[in-house]
Amino acid sequence: MLVGEIVGSEKGYSMKRSLLAVSLASTLFLVGCGESENAQPSAVAPRVVVEAASVIAHQPSKSYVGRIEAVEDADITAQVSGYLKERHFKEGQIVEKGQLLYSIEPSSFAAQVASAKAQVAQSSAHLKRADNDYQRAKNLLPKGSISRSEYDTKYAEQLGASAQLEAAKAELLLAEVNLSYTKITAPFSGRISDTKVSIGDLLSPSSGTLTTLVSLDPVHAAFQLSERERLELGVDKYEGDGESDSGEVEVTLMLENGQAHPQKGRLDFVGNRIDLTTGTLAVRASVPNSQHTLLPGQHIKVMIAATQTQPAIVIPRRAVQTDIAGDFVMLKTDGNIAERRNVELGVQTPSGVIVKTGLAEKDQVIVGGLQRVRNGAPVQVAEAKPQPASSQASE
Questions:
Q1: How many structural domains are present in the chain?
Q2: What is the pLDDT of residues 122-163, one digit of tens each?
Q3: pTM for the complete prediction?
Q4: Which range of residues forms the domain containing residue 116?
Q5: Looking at the structure, do residues 111 and 164 belong to the same domain, yes or no?
Q6: Looking at beta carbons, which pairs linking 162-168 to residues 24 or more positions away fall under 8 Å?
Q7: Is 381 exposed, middle or buried, given 0-12, 13-18 or 19+ CB atoms closer than 10 A?
């Protein structure tokens, strides 16, 4: 009985060992197959599409937020005291230089002019008599008919009469100026605001502003540039000579409806120091405004562009990738090895996106098949196939 149990036990143990061996062999076989299958794709370099970085002639430009300012902005005030007789303009209309705006009651000032004219006539007659007396004394002195003292008296009277005439003329001029101030005219062409006074009001120099007038053609567009942008756009070459070419840049204003102002501007002022608070330079452009589209105080987008083109490297936008370190592209280097290259991008152009730093002309940029490309891994170049715009955008 014991012998039978021992024999059965040995047979069961032997069978278990056989089954364990078969299972282990099967597992090793499957693992080997899996490693073989996983190793197969990694042995084949991914196929990529490559394009060479190209160089185009680019006109650098940038936009800024600016504000429209009037070239001329004046407060219209009274220069003499008097009652307002009449207003000669419609509020908000365009007035021309020299156009009559207000009339102050002129009668008292006209009377002062008349009085001053009479004083001039009286002084002129007095001078004529004194001059005749002096001439007679001048002829009689050599003959001894008058004394030297009498001669000096006639000479002094002649000089006094001449001074009185000059004083009378000055009073007449002042009276005429005051009379002219009763007609308040526009100092320049522009749009006038509403009036602050009414007919019959007593006006004086202390009455304050009667109305305001701003010029509208041309206008100023004021904005700020950083020190780097000043150098990049050539603003540092501005000479301030007022010539139409305005140096190295041209100015375009974008309206709120998205359209460009039809007339180009030119720089007419560049500040002489950098603001220590903002790190920017004050810049101003003069812009024609014949249709009065632009108004003082209006916020505007200022597009400033260099007049001379510069060489710039461009690549397709779909070649650019972004991660936590910034923008980068993958290059195909010698030996068909992929290499990461960090780049600084510029603006988008019809030829592609501009690369400021990171690439050189003719660098082989990978533009297709980027999903399986890894830095330092081999790649194989495939021929580029034409793709629709939507497909390129999706990449």
A1: 3
A2: 999 998 998 888 888 888 878 877 788 888 888 898 899 899
A3: 0.62
A4: 106-180
A5: yes
A6: 162/127, 162/130, 164/123, 164/126, 164/127, 165/120, 165/123, 165/124, 165/126, 165/127, 167/123, 168/116, 168/119, 168/120, 168/122, 168/123, 168/124
A7: middle
